[in-house]
Amino acid sequence: NIMDERAERVSDFDRAMMRRCLELASKALGRTSPNPLVGAVVVNDGEIVGEGFHPGPGQPHAEVFALRAAGARARGATIYVNLEPCNHFGRTPPCSEAVIAAGIARVVIGMSDPNPVAAGGRDRLQAEGIEVQTDVEAAACRELNEAFAHWARHQQPFGILKYAMTLDGKIATANGHSAWVSGEAARRRVHQERLAADVVVVGGNTLRQDNPLLTTHAMGDRNPLRTVLSRTLELPPDARLWRTDVAPSLVLTAPSADPDRQAALRDRGVEVVVLEELTPTRVMEYFYERQLSRVLWECGGTLAAAAIAAGAVQKVLAFIAPKIVGGATAPSPVGDLGITSMEKALALTDLKIESFAPDWLLSGYLR
Ligand code: AOF
Ligand code: ZN
């Protein structure tokens, strides 16, 4: 039985080392796009002799740092890495060759490389007579690099729609008041999501109504590119988003936008880019061109519906607060999708529910 054999060869220790790889990989959270988050650990005789992670594009890969740290103790050792070692000359040489040259005896891999250009390390290592185990802690490994996998497979950024709603499905009261739907724990979780994101997107309405800062706050010195989509540029002159000393801001607009308003924003250090067509599809293409691979939509219902309809949302993070505001005209998280029958409802898969007391986070994926 193949599963039994595999179970014997992959131990709890192996799984713990793979978890360590993910922890190391996460040190570069938000800094590696369009590259993946990768960590590596070298273990000789049950002892960790080297660790490393990939800091970002153009820099050495995780395996290289871990092998360097291990030095001669890599000979006969096991290397753990959450992504299949690359087998290509990209910005850096192939990790498969580095692993072979170091005299590694066993390679434990979390997931295969979804990038067809770099894949093949596993076969290369096996051909060399090295023992290889794959798919160790696979679910956690795939989740950490879900944006990279989508990017590599579809040549598109990965879109995440985040919203916070009351138990009766409202994101604000009827007059637009929304601070705050969810509590502190949930909001901290959102800051963490911003840490992992390359871009955060809102529309002009959210900017006018909520005046959000859209930073990671205390989560670290790194912030996503804070982006507003606005055709008219009718935006408050004193918005918190124009504090470009805190984090960079980008306004995407249409050719019809008033040049004086564009100039006023640029004077404040805001980057203004005119797109021929201000649609979620074009916006995602633009992000792809800029190699921004994880896009967090924190917009209101109208833009959220347009993003979903355009296929710009792959994952949904729905925070649910145990409160009721009522109101037939109070806004809800997703506007009109043109769905008239319940069988046509968009179904989420791979659901997860987590507690951020007093709120809940329900997350899942859209096909
Ligand atoms: C690994 N270990 O730590 C990373 C890998 O341009 P390059 O040379 O940086 O190559 C980027 C590709 O290599 C990237 O698309 C992905 O397929 C793989 N990334 N591979 O063995 C690492 N970051
Ligand atoms: Zn590599």
From TrEMBL:
Pathway: Cofactor biosynthesis; riboflavin biosynthesis; 5-amino-6-(D-ribitylamino)uracil from GTP: step 3/4; Cofactor biosynthesis; riboflavin biosynthesis; 5-amino-6-(D-ribitylamino)uracil from GTP: step 2/4
The organism of origin for this protein: Rubidibacter lacunae KORDI 51-2
Active site per database record: 63 (proton donor)
Protein name stated in the entry: Riboflavin biosynthesis protein RibD
GO BP annotations, alphabetical order: riboflavin biosynthetic process
Protein origin, superkingdom: Bacteria
Role according to the record: Converts 2,5-diamino-6-(ribosylamino)-4(3h)-pyrimidinone 5'-phosphate into 5-amino-6-(ribosylamino)-2,4(1h,3h)-pyrimidinedione 5'-phosphate.
Cofactor(s), names only, from the UniProt record: Zn(2+)
Sites where the protein binds Zn(2+): 61, 86, 95
InterPro entries named in the record: APOBEC/CMP_deaminase_Zn-bd, CMP_dCMP_dom, Cytidine_deaminase-like, DHFR-like_dom_sf, Eubact_RibD, RibD_C, RibDG_C, Riboflavin_Biosynth_HTPR
One MF annotation (Gene Ontology) recorded for this entry: diaminohydroxyphosphoribosylaminopyrimidine deaminase activity
Alphabetical keyword list: Hydrolase, Metal-binding, Multifunctional enzyme, NADP, Oxidoreductase, Riboflavin biosynthesis, Zinc
Catalytic reaction(s) noted: 2,5-diamino-6-hydroxy-4-(5-phosphoribosylamino)-pyrimidine + H2O + H(+) = 5-amino-6-(5-phospho-D-ribosylamino)uracil + NH4(+); 5-amino-6-(5-phospho-D-ribitylamino)uracil + NADP(+) = 5-amino-6-(5-phospho-D-ribosylamino)uracil + NADPH + H(+)
UniProt record similarity statement: In the C-terminal section; belongs to the HTP reductase family. In the N-terminal section; belongs to the cytidine and deoxycytidylate deaminase family.
